């Protein structure tokens, strides 16, 4: 019974649900959204008298009582993790060896997560960096050595100590740009900041200052203009 109505669900329908769900979790999937599971299997679910996502959730709860059930998704992992963190882990799991992926490629690899959820997780991550329209870079795939990161940190620290600020555009990144020619400069700037600068420096646009300092772009322009005799 569901919603005060009696539905006769054939055994082959519940068997098929069990086979698919167990296979997905066995393959490494860690969460499944009800709406996507229903959307991708709607024809045979509806034919089997499962007429809505809400009904599907009720059936799943009876079939797999050990799983964890949230408002929009369920998981075989009883550990308590926020939805965003789970989606972030799923994106990392399917990313592969490439540096760049767009929304659609990721969604193809995660068919049981709504693309809007994927977009939201990407936009709120320090691991996945905006590169260009609908395309993100994986910070863990960027070619940069520990020595290069150390040199960049030392450079930024020195310039900020002398002048109070530095533009990330003035940081020597030519070698990193050359070694990662698929990436936009924006993505490289974000990667460098996240990899070796964010613990000690604040970033406002392209300007870097020591945490707690308040140098602004307007202040920097005013200081520069005060030092010159004429404009060209």
List its traits:
232 residues, three-stranded antiparallel β-sheet, 11 helices, Arc Repressor Mutant, subunit A, single chain, 9 strands, 3 domains, alpha+beta
Commentary on this structure:
With 232 residues, the chain is α+β, with helices and mostly antiparallel strands. The protein folds into three domains: 11-75; 84-139, Arc Repressor Mutant, subunit A (Orthogonal Bundle); 146-227, no CATH class. The chain is 50% helix and 12% strand. The chain contains eleven helices and nine strands. It has helices at 11-26, 34-40, 42-47, 53-63, 83-94, 103-109, 115-123, 146-163, 174-179, 185-197, 217-227; strands at residues 32-33, 68-69, 73-75, 100-102, 128-132, 135-138, 166-167, 201-204, 207-210. A three-stranded antiparallel β-sheet has the order 1-3-2. A hairpin with a 2-residue loop joins β8 and β9 (207-210). α2 packs across α4, α5 crosses α7 (115-123) and α8 crosses α10 (185-197). The longest helix is centred in the middle third of the chain and has 18 residues, at 146-163. It is elongated.
Q: What would you say about this model in short?
A:
With 232 residues, this protein is of the alpha+beta class. 50% of the residues lie in helices and 12% in strands.
What is the approximate shape? elongated
Quote the beta fraction.
Answer: 5-15%
User: Strands of the largest sheet, in order across it?
Assistant: 1-3-2
Low-confidence stretches: none
Largest sheet: 3 strands, antiparallel
């Amino acid at each position: 019974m569901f919603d005060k109505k009696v539905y006769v669900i054939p055994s082959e329908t519940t068997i098929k649900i069990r086979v698919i769900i167990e296979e997905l979790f066995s393959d490494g999937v860690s969460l499944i959204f009800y709406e996507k599971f229903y959307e991708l299997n709607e024809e045979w679910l509806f034919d089997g008298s499962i007429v809505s996502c809400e009904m599907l959730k009720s059936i799943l709860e009876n079939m797999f009582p050990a799983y964890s059930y949230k408002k929009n998704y369920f998981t075989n992992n009883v550990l308590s993790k926020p939805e965003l963190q789970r989606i972030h882990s799923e994106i990392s799991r399917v990313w592969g060896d490439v540096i760049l992926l767009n929304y659609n490629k990721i969604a193809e690899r995660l068919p049981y997560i709504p693309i809007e959820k994927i977009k939201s997780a990407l936009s709120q991550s320090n691991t996945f960096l905006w590169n260009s329209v609908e395309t993100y870079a994986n910070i863990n795939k960027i070619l940069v050595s520990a020595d290069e990161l150390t040199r960049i940190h030392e450079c930024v620290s020195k310039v900020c100590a002398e002048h109070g600020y530095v533009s990330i555009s003035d940081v020597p990144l030519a070698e990193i740009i050359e070694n990662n020619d698929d990436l936009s400069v924006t993505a490289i700037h974000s990667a460098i900041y996240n990899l070796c600068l964010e613990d000690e420096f604040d970033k406002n646009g392209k300007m870097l200052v020591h945490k707690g300092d308040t140098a602004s772009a307007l202040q920097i322009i005013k200081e520069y203009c005060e030092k010159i005799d004429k404009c060209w």
